[in-house]
Every structure is written in structure tokens, then in C-alpha cells.
């Protein structure tokens, strides 16, 4: 089964949800003419990293964003992995991804677990409490956000529960572009899954972002990659390839989870 993906590598207007919604609406309108099955947006696409103004600009309960992407998904009959947004909750603001299917139904949500101290996330945001598993096009998928890709054990927990495609949404800065490419390829190889990674383009008052959205196949080959400019990256993925690679080198059967847990417990007991 093949699935056509479009990653919208947007430049994000700093702290301006109205303008960002206009951009996303326009881009989705344009790209829908190519009939993608799944459209992916970057991290914090409504506000960017305007963290000091979250009181003003974060989305109360994610209500506005959910309604916005549900409407677009339904009217263009396309699945949307809607990057992430700053969401106000009872326990503070979370960095939250929503997923809408072709009928405009929210089929998943995930809030970033690992907060990135280098960009002050820990001062303004609360970590998520749930996993990022969801089903799209009859395929088990996982979604994580930016810094999360530095934590292979978190992604592994999703993969052992059957995920075949990993969506990564990001605002990854240019100085660490080489980490971005290497970490994404490593996550694909070690989990024998497709990795669909949508980064933002452009800059904000503190950072220049890397772009280079990319799609990696389960053998670790990069099958599509953007440059640093705003653009839409298109790719076709074939799920048969996941099954073939997993059959050829059966890492999920060969892994020794109980030994890892015992070794870690032992270490913790001693330390
Ligand atoms: O891990 C990194 O180098 C970048 C992470 C990041 O920019 C983020 O999580 O927003």
C-alpha cells in the first residue's frame, strides 16, 4: 500500500496565529490539487517560539486549532498531522500535536514529552503525559515533536506497539542540521520504519531554522529532502517495505527487553 505525503515546510510568522492560519489555509488549498493522502505541518506553527506571550496567544484547550484543521481536512478530504501548537490547559501550556482524518475527525493528539531547555521550553511549557500513537489510512503511526528524537527509548516504546510510520514535527535550528539528519536516519534504521519529518523554514528573533524536512525509508535511505527555503516536500511511501525490512533483520523478535530492564534496575539499585 502506498501513501502520498506532503510536508509543509513553512516560514512561521512570530506570535501571529491569524497570519499563520492564513498561510496554512493557502498552502493546503494549493497542495490539495496534487491529492496527497497526508499533509504534515511543523512544530508550534500558530505562534512560533513566542513563549513570553503565551498567555495571550496560546490556544485555549486547542479548540480553535482543532476546529480549523477539522474544517480543512474535511473540505479537502485529506488527513492532516497538524504539527503542534501551544495549548492552554488546567496544568499550564503544552506543546500539542493534533491529527485529523479525511472526515475531519480528530484521531489523535500528543503533547511533547521532552522539553528543550536550550530554547527555554521548561520555563514556559508542561510536558505531555500520553503516548503519540494513532491510526491513519489503516496504518499504525506514531508522532513525536522535535527534541523527542534525541530519546530513542521513547520512540521505541511506540514502535514495539506496532507503529510503522514515525511523524516528527519540528522547529530545529540550523546549527544542528547534521544532528537532525543523522538522528532521523538512525531512528528509521533502528526501528525499521518510515520517518516523515517536517521542520520549519525561516528565522525568529533568536534562531535560524534548518528546513531540510525529509523522508527516510525503513532501510535508512533518505528518499526526499527539502533545502532551507519554505516549500512543500512531497514523497510516496510504500508500507510493504517496512514489512520486508522487518522480515529480513527481525530486530523486534531479537530484542531482549527483559534484560535491558533488569540491567537498568540493577544499576539504579546500586546508584
Ligand atoms: O535537539 C535539538 O537540537 C533541537 C530541539 C529543538 O529545537 C526543540 O525541541 O524545539
TrEMBL record:
GO terms for molecular function: hydrolase activity. SUPFAM superfamilies: Carbon-nitrogen hydrolase. It comes from Parageobacillus galactosidasius. Belongs to the carbon-nitrogen hydrolase superfamily. NIT1/NIT2 family. This is Carbon-nitrogen hydrolase. InterPro entries: C-N_Hydrolase (IPR003010), C-N_Hydrolase_sf (IPR036526). CDD domains: nitrilase_5. Keywords: Hydrolase. The keyword Glycoprotein does not apply. The keyword Hydrolase applies. The lineage of its organism: Bacteria, Bacillati, Bacillota, Bacilli, Bacillales. Residues 3-239 form the CN hydrolase domain.
Amino acid at each position: 500500500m502506498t501513501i502520498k505525503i506532503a510536508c509543509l515546510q513553512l516560514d512561521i510568522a512570530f506570535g501571529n496565529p491569524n497570519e499563520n492560519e492564513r498561510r496554512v489555509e493557502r498552502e493546503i488549498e494549493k497542495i490539495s490539487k496534487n491529492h496527497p493522502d497526508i499533509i504534515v505541518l511543523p512544530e508550534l506553527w500558530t505562534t512560533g517560539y513566542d513563549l513570553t506571550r503565551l498567555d495571550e496567544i496560546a490556544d485555549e484547550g486547542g479548540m480553535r486549532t482543532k476546529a480549523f484543521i477539522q474544517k480543512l481536512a474535511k473540505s479537502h478530504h485529506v488527513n492532516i498531522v497538524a504539527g503542534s501548537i501551544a495549548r492552554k490547559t488546567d496544568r499550564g501550556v503544552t506543546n500539542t500535536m493534533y491529527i485529523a482524518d479525511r472526515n475531519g475527525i480528530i484521531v489523535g493528539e500528543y503533547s511533547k514529552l521532552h522539553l528543550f531547555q536550550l530554547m527555554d521550553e521548561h520555563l514556559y511549557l508542561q510536558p505531555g503525559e500520553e503516548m503519540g500513537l494513532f491510526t491513519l489510512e489503516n496504518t499504525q503511526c506514531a508522532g513525536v515533536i522535535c527534541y523527542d528524537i534525541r530519546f530513542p527509548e521513547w520512540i521505541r516504546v511506540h514502535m514495539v506497539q506496532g507503529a510503522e510510520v514515525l511523524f516528527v514535527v519540528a522547529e530545529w535550528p540550523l546549527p544542528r542540521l547534521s544532528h537532525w539528519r543523522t538522528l532521523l536516519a538512525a531512528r528509521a534504521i533502528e526501528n525499521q520504519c518510515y520517518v516523515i519529518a517536517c521542520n520549519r523554514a525561516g528565522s525568529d528573533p533568536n534562531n535560524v531554522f534548518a528546513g531540510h524536512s525529509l523522508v527516510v525509508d525503513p532501510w535508512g535511505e533518505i528518499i526526499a529532502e527539502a533545502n532551507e527555503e519554505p516549500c512543500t516536500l512531497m514523497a510516496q511511501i510504500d508500507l510493504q517495505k517496512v514489512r520486508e525490512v522487518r522480515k529480513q533483520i527481525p530486530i523486534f523478535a531479537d530484542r531482549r527487553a527483559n534484560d535491558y530492564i533488569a540491567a537498568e534496575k540493577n544499576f539504579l539499585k546500586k546508584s
